[in-house]
């Protein structure tokens, strides 16, 4: 799943994945390899309502708070949409992902990425200032191992930004009550392991070396993604999400991001 040595800058050649001893990892890799074909269908300015771009903007802005001028690692970088934006303000921006299909698209962007698992990061101890992960940890069964790994690669005084799926939210309610979405003609979202953690549970998962210093809520008041496509309501919701993301109401965000400082 990668080398423990420091990766060289620049794109890395793809290597064919080999079956692991962990069926969960193999299933997750296969899911995202399939998802890669349409992962960007509604992102990167392709969604007329801007829902997915709003999520990305709120996440990128939070990383910039801690990662400007620093060395940033994105755990679960996918096709590199966020990572390419981190490059604009970070000293260095590197990524790791489990899916060769996703990484193929990230490498096409010229990004510095490696194949690897969130629970066994192919980077040395204390090698980055910020380790961040978005929409990835919710699909990791051993969440404590993933957070411990993120803490391991961060230098003392650096930060881990970890995003969780929050059951105390409109999105959490929709996922419980509504049908699973589709990632392809044959596969639905429920084909991959997904966990939901309340903010309190998420904070409890943090290893002892990390101290929670801030949090951001993403998608706090937007009931459904389609609401963002309505001309007036969409703008009201967009402004409200930005106004509320760092307030105590962040605990009701569909995506809850913990910012933790390493001692």
Describe the protein in words.
- There is one protein chain.
- The model is unreliable at 1-19 (pLDDT under 50).
- A seven-stranded mixed β-sheet has the order 3-2-1-4-5-7-6, with helices on both faces.
- The chain has eight helices and seven strands; from the N terminus they run ααβαβαββαβααβαβ.
- It has one domain (23-262): Rossmann fold (3-Layer(aba) Sandwich).
- The chain is globular, with a radius of gyration of 17 Å.
- It is of the alpha/beta class and 263 residues long.
- The longest helix is centred in the first third of the chain and has 17 residues, at 51-67.
- Residues 73-161 form the Methyltransferase type domain.
CATH superfamily: Vaccinia Virus protein VP39
Determine the N-to-C terminus distance.
Answer: 28 Å
Topology, number of strands: 7
Biggest β-sheet description:
7 strands, mixed
Strand content: 15-25%
CATH-defined fold name = Rossmann fold
Quaternary state reads: single chain
Shape: globular
Secondary-structure map with pairings?
Layout: H1 23-35, H2 51-67, E1 71-75, H3 81-86, E2 92-97, H4 100-108, E3 112-115, E4 128-133, H5 143-153, E5 154-165, H6 170-177, H7 199-205, E6 210-218, H8 231-244, E7 255-262
Parallel strand pairs: 1-2, 1-4, 2-3, 4-5
Antiparallel strand pairs: 5-7, 6-7
């Amino acid at each position: 799943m990668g080398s423990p040595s420091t990766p060289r800058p620049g794109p890395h050649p793809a290597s064919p994945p080999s079956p692991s001893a962990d069926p969960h990892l193999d299933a997750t890799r296969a899911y995202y390899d399939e998802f890669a074909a349409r992962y960007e269908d509604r992102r990167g300015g392709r969604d007329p309502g801007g829902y997915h771009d709003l999520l990305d903007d709120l996440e990128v802005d939070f990383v910039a708070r801690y990662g400007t001028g620093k060395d940033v690692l994105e755990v679960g970088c996918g096709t590199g949409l966020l990572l390419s934006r981190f490059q604009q303000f970070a000293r260095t921006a590197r990524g790791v992902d489990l899916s060769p299909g996703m990484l193929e698209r990230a490498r096409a962007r010229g990004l510095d990425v490696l194949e690897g698992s969130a629970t066994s990061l192919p980077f040395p101890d204390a090698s980055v200032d910020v380790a961040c992960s978005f929409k990835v940890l919710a699909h990791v069964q051993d969440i404590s191992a993933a957070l411990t790994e993120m803490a391991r690669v961060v230098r003392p005084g650096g930060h881990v930004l970890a995003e969780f799926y929050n059951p105390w939210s409109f999105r959490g309610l929709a996922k419980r009550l509504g049908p699973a979405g589709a990632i392809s003609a044959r596969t639905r979202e429920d084909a991959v392991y997904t966990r939901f953690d309340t903010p309190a549970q998420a904070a409890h998962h943090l290893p002892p070396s990390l101290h929670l210093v801030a949090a951001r809520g993403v998608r706090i008041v937007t009931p459904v993604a389609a609401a963002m496509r309505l001309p007036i309501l969409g703008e009201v919701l967009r402004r409200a999400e930005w106004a509320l993301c760092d307030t105590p109401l962040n605990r009701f965000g569909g995506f809850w991001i913990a910012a933790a400082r390493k001692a």
